[in-house]
Specification:
- Helices cover 54% and strands 9% of the residues.
- By secondary structure, the chain is of the alpha/beta class.
- A four-stranded parallel sheet has the order 2-1-3-4, sandwiched between helices.
- Helix 2 (25-50) runs parallel beside helix 6.
- The two termini are 24 Å apart.
- The mean pLDDT is 90.
Length: 167
């Protein structure tokens, strides 16, 4: 979810393809350069979208958002689950609820393919904690294709910004 990483991978993939298929090397490199330019424009667009979020405290479903937070200066206070492969237990839910009381959390985000009940349990700790739209960091609900990554990034930025703004 860090656009700079996507650009690095795109360049590396193009170079590998160029080595494997030298006859089309310039096409791979040109396509990569075009893709990198689009990623850089997307990064600027998403940064503008997320600028109003500032340092608002966010709670995510699990720890998949570190690169996003680093790239755009988001303040992730914690996660409901410790990872994607395990649902949170009672001890985890109790701990995250206790930590949010004084942490200044503004929004908690459910995630597609995970039960909303855990988000409801966490969010009931504070009347001021808003529940945002479900995030889809893997893009499983999106149409595969060339627009998947930009759609994913814009969608997450919009959901985060809308929640922080009170929408």
């Amino acid at each position: 979810m860090k656009p700079q990483n996507a650009a690095l991978w795109l360049g590396a993939i193009a170079e590998t393809l160029a080595e494997l298929d030298p006859d089309n090397a310039e096409t791979y490199r040109a396509n990569a350069a075009d893709g990198i330019a689009r990623i850089e424009a997307l990064e600027a667009e998403v940064a503008d979208m997320l600028a109003p979020v500032g340092d608002a405290g966010l709670v995510m479903y699990h720890d998949a958002y570190g690169y996003l937070a680093t790239a755009f200066g988001l303040n992730i206070l914690g996660t409901i689950a410790l990872g994607d492969a395990a649902e949170p237990g009672a001890a985890r839910l109790t701990a995250i609820r206790a930590s949010l009381k004084d942490a200044g959390a503004v929004c908690v985000f459910p995630e597609v393919n995970h039960p909303d009940a855990y988000v409801a349990l966490v969010s009931e700790v504070d009347d001021g904690l808003r529940v945002g739209a479900a995030l889809d960091p893997a893009g499983v609900m999106l149409e595969p294709g060339a627009d998947l990554y930009p759609t994913l990034m814009r969608g997450m930025a919009a959901a985060i910004t809308d929640c922080v703004a009170g929408g």
